[in-house]
Design a protein that fits this description.
12 strands, Nucleoside Triphosphate Pyrophosphohydrolase, 33% strand, alpha+beta, globular, 4-stranded antiparallel sheet
Length: 236
């Protein structure tokens, strides 16, 4: 299969989401105490998206983990995200969770905590793990375990120190926005593979801190897919 890259996902067309778009969960379910209870007694549910379509030759599976960091705020729960450095070789400038590859003998939770401290300076002592979501497999060969956790409420994104070689920015997004399926989009990309026309759809959740402004954080790809699975967990 011919490899391809998406230079600017914002410019790709939207397609109908489909009948399973869903409805927003009750706001009470987005409170961290309720999320904690849900992990303690999980409902019957299944993830909606478990993998990206491979974009190149089959790769040896590589285990990784990311942290989905939640913070209790007066206006409701927020979620910490990062914007990757523009100098990185892969996925430069994309919105991502803190995280990375597992070291030999390391558990997904330990890896998520270590990578979070390395990338954004958030100590594991200020993180309380709530549980994990099903593994998500990326088209580039990573098998990613999302680790959901509560971050101490006194932590502010502005106080964290990003590793300049990896992270350009740390910011918060209201969980109520991310868990509202009306804010979930499907986009599509077409490309030519030899004599065949191929296509691939992906999830996106564009967020504007100021709805009246044009500045936008374009959350898409694997990050958006794992958030969609988190939505399915909370909505079940």
């Amino acid at each position: 299969m011919t490899q391809f890259s998406i230079d600017d996902p914002r410019r790709l067309p939207r397609i109908p989401f489909g009948p399973n778009q869903g409805t927003a969960p009750d706001p009470q379910r987005l409170e961290i105490a309720e999320i904690r209870r849900r992990f303690a007694a999980p409902p019957t549910w299944s993830p909606e998206v478990i993998e990206d379509r491979p974009v190149g030759p089959a790769l040896e599976p590589r285990m990784a983990a990311v942290l989905i960091p939640l913070l209790a705020r007066p206006h409701g729960t927020s979620l910490l995200l990062t914007r990757r450095s523009d100098t990185l070789r892969h996925h430069r400038g994309q919105i991502a969770f803190p995280g990375g590859r597992l070291e030999i003998g390391e558990s997904p939770i330990a890896a998520a905590l270590r990578e979070t401290e390395e990338e954004i300076g958030l100590s594991p002592s200020r993180i309380d793990v709530l549980g994990t979501l099903p593994e998500y497999r990326t088209g580039t060969g990573f098998h990613v375990v999302p680790v959901v956790a509560e971050v101490a409420s006194e932590v502010a994104a502005s106080d964290l120190v990003p590793a300049p070689s990896e992270v350009a920015e740390i910011f918060e997004v209201p969980l109520v926005f991310l868990m509202d399926p009306q804010n979930h989009q499907r986009r599509i990309v077409h490309w030519v593979d030899g004599e065949r026309q191929r296509s691939r759809s992906f999830l996106a959740m564009p967020w504007r801190p100021d709805p009246e402004a044009t500045d936008e954080y374009f959350i898409w790809g694997a990050t958006a897919a794992m958030l969609r699975n988190f939505y399915r967990f909370l909505a079940a």
